[in-house]
Amino acid sequence: MAAISREEVAHLARLSRLAVTEEELDRFAGQLDVILQSVARVGEVAAEDIPPTSHSVPLTNVYREDVPTPSLAQEAALSGAPDAYEGRFRVPRILDEEE
Amino acid sequence: MSDLTRKTAVELRELLDAKEVSAVEVATAHLDQIAAVDDRVHAFLHVDREGALDAARRVDAGEITGPLAGVPIAVKDVVTTKGIPTTAASKILEGWKPPYDATIVERLKAAGMPILGKTNMDEFAMGSSTEYSAYGPTNNPWDLGRIPGGSGGGSAAALAAYEAPLAIGTDTGGSIRQPGAVTGTVGAKPTYGGTSRYGLIAFSSSLDTPGPCARTVEDTALLHAVIAGHDPRDSTSIAQPVPDVVAAARLGLQGDLTGVRLGIVKEFTGEGAEPGVLAAFRESLEALVKLGAEVVEVSCPHFEYALPAYYLIAPSECSSNLARFDGVRYGLRVGDDGQRSLEEVMSLTREAGFGPEVKRRIIIGTYALSSGYYDAYYGQAQKVRTLITRDFETAFSKVDVLVSPTTPFVAFPFGSRTSDPYQMYLADLFTIPTNLYGGPAISVPCGLSEGLPVGFQIMAPTMADDRMYRVAGALESAVGTLTPPAL
């Protein structure tokens, strides 16, 4: 049985904000199925009493002194923006017209 | 003075100290070599001739001194360089000039090291061959029809083509060590947290580790010492002194390993490695035994689950990290016609800007993190990570370092593993366990198989980077370095 269907791949691509083509969907569905069937082997081990590891460095809550330090100038922060307007990032419309 | 490109960093420093050459002459020789051979090798995505020469002039003027002052370096294109294009080999960042330097780049500049340019890689460091670079692959100087490894194939090939004596790589699942192995060069992945990730374009934040690449063990250690150390701008940076890797490498080069215990991982023997790779590995192991080392077989029963765990954890983290490429703050924007919504423009931008491997990993990561699948995939992979860490800890209670071939196979021809992504993933079989554990590992050339380089991997406990350099130095003293055929 396939681990993942073409429809699921299409749904995941939408969630990931990837406007994939039909041709890509055909190709990815098979490839992702092979990959997922291979990696599903992690289910063969690791019982409930094993704690998860998210990170190899045992650090939590690394704080610095709460003092202001210089940051990027506005011009530098906007220097790579595809579109900027009056010192801000300019974006396409977010709301539909009827909203 | 074209033979300056054949010198090691140590030799270049001796010539500079003796005033026999200037830093400008050293930088010029390497820039000329890039101009002469890079149309065939394609190690570089961007060459900064003027910037490199400016830095060299400052060293010649006596403004900066130090153990690597005036020694040029190539930097992987996933590391930000202020005002110098940084693309991570992706179309989504084409032409982007970062407004700041990565911490490791600041340290290179402070050390007086001229930056020659930015090296090619698999897009966002996802791959094992540079075939996933959006700007075309890098060719292996040993055989231009074969892959230079990946993701850091550009950095490794630049070393093997004598375009640079030193290079920076990043290692998430083997991206420093595997290119080192297949190009006959040295590459070290430091302890996770031992080198700063600030300014490294994030792929998998719990695994990404910048590190040094060179043609000799001592050069690698010298570069390691320049870039390593605590950085308050990286919250996972380790606030401890850096082990003295240079002294350890020099000790090793004296060729005495009396009392050092080398662990062979039982589960790695016989699994998937080419016969020629195993033969070169075993011969090198015998050479180390002649230097006094003891070989002990250890069992790491969960290593066989490292590859599946990695290919869940890394895509999961990448699906989150790469959400920042939204066509708003930097990089590409596609389809903004004044009519389409932000979400449509974002989807069209990411579709146009990302290559197929990046898309595959984003989709897998999104799947593994989604409700209903999280426990079975990402959650389970994190438990495997715990078991692999325990395997390492048990092994290091019996031996000083673990050794293995770096990669199961020598450089493969272009196109031979791209149709089946999982076949590409197998290149990382021996390198990935270390990334999940977080300890340091190094690949050192150990001979040829069918005329192509084989790498010998040495893995050490967390923050015992010096230990692996000692064994690496000893190996180099026994088997020597490799010289690629003339281009």
Automatic annotation (TrEMBL), chain A:
Its EC number is 6.3.5.-. One of its GO terms (biological process) is translation. It is an enzyme of class 6 (ligase). Pfam families: GatC. It catalyses: L-aspartyl-tRNA(Asn) + L-glutamine + ATP + H2O = L-asparaginyl-tRNA(Asn) + L-glutamate + ADP + phosphate + 2 H(+); L-glutamyl-tRNA(Gln) + L-glutamine + ATP + H2O = L-glutaminyl-tRNA(Gln) + L-glutamate + ADP + phosphate + H(+). GO terms for molecular function: ATP binding; glutaminyl-tRNA synthase (glutamine-hydrolyzing) activity. Keywords: ATP-binding, Ligase, Nucleotide-binding, Protein biosynthesis. InterPro entries: Asp/Glu-ADT_sf_sub_c, GatC. HAMAP family: GatC. Belongs to the GatC family. Heterotrimer of A, B and C subunits. Allows the formation of correctly charged Asn-tRNA(Asn) or Gln-tRNA(Gln) through the transamidation of misacylated Asp-tRNA(Asn) or Glu-tRNA(Gln) in organisms which lack either or both of asparaginyl-tRNA or glutaminyl-tRNA synthetases. The reaction takes place in the presence of glutamine and ATP through an activated phospho-Asp-tRNA(Asn) or phospho-Glu-tRNA(Gln). This is Aspartyl/glutamyl-tRNA(Asn/Gln) amidotransferase subunit C.
